[in-house]
Amino acid sequence: MSKKIVVVNGGPRKGWNTDTLLTEAAKGAESAGAEIIRFDLFRLEKYTGCISCFGCKREKFKGHCICRDGLTPVLDAIREADGLVLGAPIYLSEFTASFRALYERLIFQNLTYTKEQPCCNEHMIPALLVMTSNAPQEMYQGLMDNYQRTMNSFVGPTKVLISADTLQLKDYNSTDWKWTIFDPEKKKKRHETVFPEECKKAFEMGKELCS
Fold this sequence. Notes:
The structure is a single chain. With about 210 residues, the protein is of the alpha/beta class. Helices cover about 35% and strands about 15% of the residues. It has six helices and six strands, in the order βαβαββαβαβαα. α1 (about 15-30) links the parallel β1 and β2. The model has no long low-confidence stretch (mean pLDDT about 95).
């Protein structure tokens, strides 16, 4: 039976950095025989982050978020998956609000508040966390380390792929404002030389989820 890999895109821009890397990771998993179930958070029905209802702490619903909205099928799919690929760009020093909404509910449903068993997730799965940012990699390394530690504890063994200093536009001169903080030519060169290597890495890391 083929493994089920859930791929979740927490970015809004189709065909750009985050979307491309997640697609490559999915292709890698597919090459190893996996079935891909994909969700694009910006295209789902309305949803929210954790509403702190504590329903997931009740014995009857333990480990299950009881809030029913656009994220419910995503959480249900992850619960039944054999692996997870999750990614988003950085906006204002954090992942997108859409990503955070899912992350809150994915983690909090498995948090028990007990010393004896901090996590009630009995179905830990390997995960790949993808981050894209127009800033240098070292700026968000600490942030990613924190996310990785948390996902290791509540989702499963998590690997991280960071694509930093990314290209945001095909032509920085096409706008009616100046992008003086960036070197457009340097970003374009990086996108042509480094980003394809990151895509290959995403492919291999997606493939590894099935091993």
